[in-house]
Design the sequence.
């Protein structure tokens, strides 16, 4: 997979906390892991919404 180079302005203290939380050392590694987690969560949320009925019209109306 080809990687793209980006330029971003990040809050240094937030980046430090993210590195600690994710167990990463570099900014690139931190951003990549964060993107992996976000896309994984989005896929998980889609499955939950798709098969649970939550988010559908009338999902919480009483029968």
Sequence:
């Amino acid at each position: 997979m080809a990687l793209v180079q980006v330029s971003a302005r990040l809050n240094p203290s937030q980046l430090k906390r993210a590195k600690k939380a994710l167990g990463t050392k570099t900014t690139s590694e931190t951003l990549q892991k964060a993107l992996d987690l976000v896309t994984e969560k989005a896929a998980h949320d889609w499955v939950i919404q798709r098969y649970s009925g939550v988010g559908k019209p009338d999902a919480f109306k009483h029968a």
